[in-house]
Design a protein that fits this description.
Helix content: 55-70%
Number of helices: 6
Radius of gyration: 16 Å
Length: 123
C-alpha cells in the first residue's frame, strides 16, 4: 500500500488534518502519537513514558498527582530537551487519550495557558 516516503508523508498529513479538525491546537492535544511524530521521537520512548505514567498514577491518586513529577518523568524518559510547551502537550495528550487520571493536571495546564494568552492580549 504505502511504498515510498511521499506516501507516508501523505498519510501523516491526513492524520494531522484529522487531528486539527478534531480540535488539536496549541492548547489541546488530540493525538499524543502525532506529537511524538512531530518531534521525531521514537516509539520506544513513547512506550517508556506511557509505562512510567501508568506506574505513577497507580501509586498516586487525585491531588497526589504532581505536575512537577510528570515533568520529571518526561525529562527522564525522553532522550532530548523539549520545550515546556511540548511537555504540556504530552501531558494533555496522555490525559485525553490514555490516562483520565491526568485530566485535572491537564485542565490546570490549559487554564494557565489561557490566562497567559489573555494577559498578553490584554483581555
Amino acid at each position: 500500500m504505502l511504498e515510498n516516503k511521499e506516501s507516508f508523508r501523505l498519510l501523516y498529513q491526513a492524520i494531522s488534518e484529522l487531528a486539527t479538525e478534531m480540535g488539536d491546537n496549541q492548547f489541546e492535544t488530540k493525538s499524543i502519537s502525532l506529537v511524538f511524530l512531530d518531534m521525531d521521537i521514537e516509539h520506544e520512548h513513547f512506550d517508556k513514558l506511557f509505562l512510567a505514567f501508568i506506574q505513577y498514577v497507580s501509586r498516586h491518586k487525585g491531588e497526589a498527582i504532581a505536575y512537577r513529577d510528570l515533568l520529571a518523568l518526561i525529562e527522564d524518559r525522553i532522550p532530548r530537551d523539549l520545550s515546556l510547551h511540548i511537555k504540556h502537550k504530552i501531558i494533555i495528550g496522555f490525559a485525553n487519550n490514555y490516562l483520565p487520571e491526568l485530566k485535572p493536571i491537564a485542565d490546570d495546564i490549559k487554564s494557565a495557558l489561557y490566562s497567559q494568552v489573555n494577559k498578553e492580549l490584554d483581555l
